């Protein structure tokens, strides 16, 4: 939105756009038409990213789309059991989900990344045998690298569990135990905390 009254949808992010935006550093300008120049990019990366002879520029609107995609992939999370996988492989919202217990809600292992699993494929057969295929079909937060990239806190006298990402500062996830209420919001600068491994 340019006037905070009329809103329009952003275009979907492609892998090429995400790769281009990852090369940019610094904060957003606030102008969707602002064009970034690739000043600190080496010749090999420039050749790989722009094989078809395009200029070394990217608009802020495009960078915003790619950053939102990166944040959703890295820290978009759901509680365990909120979605189920059918034997045919389709994923649906679990209508029987009544929320996590307070004890379960305080564990990182009770939350999953809501993206295509990566670490799950690397588990041994013995580890997979202990998982429920209908609910444990995504990657758990407890195995995120680096270890300690999430904080778990209780708010409002222990009635709300809040998870915060230290990798994408400004990402806050909440869940009200024993209810279907959960969600996440991002209020940050759009910059990944690349110093996190040195801070832990």
Automatic annotation (TrEMBL):
GO cellular-component term (any): axoneme
Coiled coil region boundaries: none
Keywords: Cell projection, Cilium, Cilium biogenesis/degradation, Cytoplasm, Cytoskeleton, Flagellum
Predominant location category: other
Location within or outside the cell: Cell projection, Kinocilium; Cytoplasm, Cytoskeleton, Flagellum axoneme
Keyword Cytoplasm found: yes
InterPro entries, per the entry: RSP9
Organism superkingdom: Eukaryota
Protein known as: Radial spoke head protein 9 homolog
């Amino acid at each position: 939105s340019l006037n905070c009254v009329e809103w329009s949808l952003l275009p979907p992010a492609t892998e090429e756009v995400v790769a281009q935006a990852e090369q940019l550093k610094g904060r957003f300008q606030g102008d969707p038409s602002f064009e970034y120049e690739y000043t600190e990019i080496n010749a090999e990366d420039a050749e790989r990213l722009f094989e078809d002879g395009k200029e070394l520029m990217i608009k802020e609107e495009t960078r915003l789309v790619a950053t939102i995609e990166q944040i959703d992939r890295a820290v978009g999370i759901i509680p365990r059991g909120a979605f189920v996988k059918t034997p045919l492989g389709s994923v649906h919202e679990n209508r029987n989900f009544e929320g996590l217990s307070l004890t379960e809600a305080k564990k990182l292992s009770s939350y999953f990344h809501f993206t295509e699993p990566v670490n799950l494929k690397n588990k041994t057969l013995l580890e997979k045998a202990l998982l429920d295929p209908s609910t444990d079909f995504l990657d758990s937060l407890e195995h995120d690298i680096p270890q300690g990239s999430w904080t778990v806190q209780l708010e409002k006298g222990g009635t709300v569990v809040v998870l915060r990402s230290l990798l994408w500062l400004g990402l806050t996830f909440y869940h009200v135990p024993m209810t279907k209420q959960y969600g996440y919001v991002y209020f940050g600068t759009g910059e990944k905390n690349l110093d996190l491994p040195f801070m832990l």
